[in-house]
Amino acid sequence: MKRLFKGAAAALGMSAMLLATLTGCGGKKGSNASAAAPSADTQSQKEPAEAEIKPDAISTVGPASGTHLDLWTFVELHSQHYAAMLEQWNKEHPDEQIQITFTTYPYGDMHNKLIMANQTGTGAPDICDVEIGQFPNFMLGNVQFVEMDKYIEPYKNNVVQSRLDIYGTKGKHYGIPFHVGATVMYYDDALLSKYGIDYKTIKTWDDFEKAGLKLKEATNGEVHMTGVDTGGTDWLWLSMAENKQDWTDANGHADIRINGVSDMIKMQKKWIDMGIAYPTPGGQIDTEAGYATVGDEKVAAFPKALWYMSRFLNYIPDQKERWAIAPCPVYKAGQPRSVGIGGTGTIVSLQSKHQDLAARFIVYAKLSLDGEKRIWEVLGFDPVNTDMWQDKSITHDKNNKYVAYFRTNPFDVLNEIKNEIGGIKAVSISSTINEQINLNVLNNCLEQGADVDSELQTAQDEIDIEQ
User: Fold this and answer.
1) What beta strand segments (E) does 117-243 contain?
2) Cβ–Cβ contacts within 10 Å for residue 20, how many?
3) Which of 327, 329, 301 lies closest to 204 in space, CA to CA?
4) Which among 26, 195, 309, 402 is least surrounded, fewest beta carbons within 10 Å?
């Protein structure tokens, strides 16, 4: 029997874990429980009939005379991006007009529906968004998606490779990413400078700790340097990337007892004991309770992906020009300072009758400079095509709402860390790892003060049962 927290604590952990999975790609609309390949028994008893899976929204864009494609997504904002790029495609390709019907489903329903279509060999859309945590479910056995490498080729030298590799297997790539999701450190520079703390001098976690002690003394412990996650793995992903580690190997076998995991949890536990950190309300910073923590000036810094910029604008608009973005601290100088987190890989189904056209369109919509510009300006994602990072007319446009909000320019940071952005693989055992880490290890260690090595070993024993 798995050793899990019950009741409210478990519900909070699971909701925070799911939220962490979803929020990197544009919102929470239509999300529900994480999908997994259903067993035959589950299908017959619980799997909704196709007619019972009702979409949240359907729209059709493009001329009726164009080649018709179907596209499924779980985030309506994604459809809006594709629709805008479709209009531009049709202007530029008069001899290859496209019409697309966009259907937005709830998160779990869409992934389950796609799994069923793959299993039965019928009913799949031409194009579909697949969330990063779900992607491994579709890489098992004979992959039912179009290999995208030849379509990526014109952009490959300018695209962050670690983000391509996430959506593939055995050296082949099947999904086109929306963003890098590069993790950076967000510093409340207005708050820190008030107490004589210069975030630019923070290069290592030791520096971070010393700044935290200074802040604690100056505020009588009223303000913490940071909040630590008990319902998300972002800090651990960053630590593994800094140590050039992954908790799964090339064969998908998991070992969470690596120092990239244990060192971070032990350090965070130490910070809590020192009074410079505390468990973030809501389990992690990307929740309503987390936004309130930032808005109420309870924490001065935290690591999060660049897509978190939109959270500031949407939920904490009154802190404009207070916050700075910088590379993350490391354990020792010379380690990589970032990791890519979150994402959606857009695929083309082998069932499509228009595979080539669908693949060329989706690469155009997501990797071309025009597509990347819109992804940045509208969605607020850090684009994977680094060519755009060099265009200062876009990256330093003072009229851009993201550029205007922060004291530092996000693309200055991106260009500084562009060769230091690691990636942690999502594989079939990842959901079991997340369950054990979020519901057991982090809560037990950071909330209850349990021994880190002992908790990791117990969780590893549970993971070993599943692999």
Assistant:
1) 127-131, 168-169, 172-173, 176-177, 183-188, 226-228
2) 24
3) 329
4) 195
